[in-house]
Amino acid sequence: MANKSNGAIGKAYQYLREGILSGDLPLGSPISEMEISAKLQISRSPIREALRRMETEGLVYRYPGRGTFVTNITRKDLEEIFELRIMFEVQALNTASRYFDDKFLEALERDFADLNPDSQPQQYYDANTRLHRGIIAYAGNKRMEKFYKQLQTQIAIVTRISARDPEHFVLSRERHLAIVRALKERDVEKAKACLTIHLEEVRDRTIKGYSQPVPLKREVH
Could you give the dihedral angle defined by the CA atoms of residues 70, 76, 77 and 83, in that order, rounded to the nearest 10 degrees? Predict the structure, then answer.
């Protein structure tokens, strides 16, 4: 029974998380446990448990007597997220740069170099995630990794917001390649400078895009 219950919680969590990150469940929208229960063919109990987990991750918030809603990220939230992200990643790069192996960096360079305007959006998101998570992972600071992980879901949401900008793809591809190539050259200061420029540009594009919000939609693959 416990395994079945855990499976239902995981099913509800995955459905809700994907819906929020894709924009099928827009920021600030109410979440209907009844509708999700009918759609997934599970009881409302595992849905509530999944929502409690998502609340701790900052994906949803609960208003007593009103229900549960998808989190609505504010400009202040974005500023705080990027302040922490820049601080974590640039600091982590000091240590991570000593441990990146050539195969990892060559694979990353290939991933970004192969991207083009016809690439599926998920290809970009996957390459982006491998680089930025890699910086934290290779630093080997478990406490930093734990705190960064708490930001990851919100980072994923704001990445989708910044991607609305038509110039985002081309500029971001070039910025990522500059970071990876500096790391291949073992030029840590150059890599840190490229990373800082990249994250500040993403921050500015995200805030600009969020000031004129439009519903996020699931990409057609």
Answer: 170
